[in-house]
Amino acid sequence: MHILITPDDDGGAHLSRLDDSGVAIGSPWKVSAEDLPQEVVSLEEEQPRWVWDTVHDFYPRLLAAGVRLARCHDISLIRTILRFSSLVQDPRYADMAARITGSADYPSADAGPVEQLQDSLFDAPRQARDHELTRQEFAAQLAAIAGSSSPVRLRLLVAAESAAGLVATEMQFLGVPWDQAAHRGLLEEVLGPEPPLGQRPRKMEALVAEMRELLRSPSLSPDSPQDLLRALHRNGIEVRTTRQWELQEFHHPVIAPLLEYKKLSRLYTANGWSWLDSWVRRGRFRSDYVVGGVVTGRWSSRGGGALQIPKSVRNAVRALPGYKLLVADASQVEPRILAAMSADQGMAAAARGQDLYAEIADAGFGGSRSSAKVALLGAMYGATTGESARLMPQLKKLYPAAIGLVEDAARRGERGESVSTWLGRTTPPPGAAWEAAQRTQTQEEQRRADSWARSRGRFTRNFIVQGTAAEWAECWLAGIRSRLHALGAAWPKALEGDTGAAGSSSWPVTGPAELVFFLHDEIMVHAPEGLIPDCVEAVESAARDAGRLLFGTAPVDFPLTVAVVDSYDQAK
DNA sequence: CACCCCCGCGCG
DNA sequence: AAAGCGCGCGGGGGTG
After folding, report:
1. pLDDT, tens digit, for every residue of A348-390?
2. Shortest CA to C1' contact from A299: nucleotide
3. Residue nearest C3, CA–C1′ metric
4. Which nucleotide is nearest to A227 (CA to C1')?
5. Given this model, what pLDDT does residue A125 score?
6. Contacts of A485 (CB under 8 A, 6+ apart)
7. Distance between CA atoms of A321 and A503, rounded to whole angstroms?
8. Are A348 and A547 in contact (CB under 8 A)?
9. CA-based angle A513:A514:A520, to the nearest 5?
10. How far is CA A204 from the centre of its chain?
11. pLDDT of the residue at A511
12. What does pTM read for this prediction?
């Protein structure tokens, strides 16, 4: 059973029941903004799949009203996947998706078959038409999937991606528990007291004075790469850039304070007092998570640099009293994914244990784990120089199927072709740069075309691995979510309305064990101490399930590193 | 003034 | 110059 829900101008919604092909069962009905949460709760008892254009339309306010939903189909997220997927063979959905994403006046423009609805059924014809057009797109998505070369894979991807939309919204709603006082203490210790507006923190100012002295540049402005570069050159330090790793190569008294300054400056500008004031409220750091925000299918984030929380401030991420943070990290996901997708027997054998790199080192790199790791990362990223490139032939001899798979993906990219992940997410078309590269005349143009092709090859090479790893991670995440949801339902209602344990009276307790963070191959659950063993079991069984869902019986393990801690810095 | 690009660095 | 993949963000500096 599907229930389609679309927005109204007055904050209410239009709802309708749809069958398994997306065909309407009966007529849509209208629900006011006020009645919506209760209506949704009672419909949820039928265990429907909620169908909406985007999770943003309704889910945030449903969460605020204390409503959680089990499953959905997120038309916008699925549009992004299906419009390019090479598994979809009928071009009609891609055309529809192009119209929707490309023209601002859709859906009112291309009404077509629904014109007859105009005069009847509703007092608000335009919204009725929007509801019907949304239904039509949903039906078109189902048809595209059913007619694809692998409905099984696409259905899994659609379920995982839609569940990801729910998790992302829930994580944004909850926020990462953040101890503001601990963060301030840490800043004060490293940078000195919070400076007045327009001034540097004391410890940074002291380093600036020291550098000006050492470089005999009284007006040096270390925040300006140009200015800094000139000052370094005047003192015989012939760096080409002011990057850390390059500065490290030089021996000069100014290097140490300069590197220290850069470190402090980073903390101050990226996660200092103003960051705290902008992004942390009532003990929670909240950010927008953008599911499918990366071409490969990874998430991106908007606001506060949520996916770049530096190690140096992770001590401020703290469980509330009586709670713990469960931090689980999937080890070496990308090489394991490569082993499974390529069905490379040798690499799969190496991927059966806890440390894949060590196994590969023993198999062909004289036991050198670091060599094995550099070689494998180079193979997945497309290294062309240095140690990594030098080790490639040996790696290819050991694992011909695995290395063949990424090399084939690279060749396809170089030719301007597309590649796909295991579940069917496909690279977007190369676009104008590729067209231009086809019409080279001068040598310079040819050189740039070659450079573009190599770059595209590195992208497609990595895309299949990074993208499939993202699919595994979303399946893992969805599995954790549904297990925690079940745990929550079984948990005594004691926590309901109880804000004492949380210590922050204004925070709604919406469930006992919460997914609060996700970072590509790592998750964080915030849960009462007593529930932690169940959460660990949930996280581990979800990882096993994710491997089976994608790769069936393929003999590749996806082991986790699990830590139960009070603050994030204690993990790993 | 807004806008855009580059630089550098944080994360996986 | 470019440089092994994918991101977001803040600051500098130039442009209109």
Report:
1. 999 998 999 999 999 999 999 999 999 999 999 999 988 999 9
2. C7
3. A385
4. C12
5. 67
6. A68, A70, A511
7. 8
8. no
9. 135
10. 34
11. 57
12. 0.93
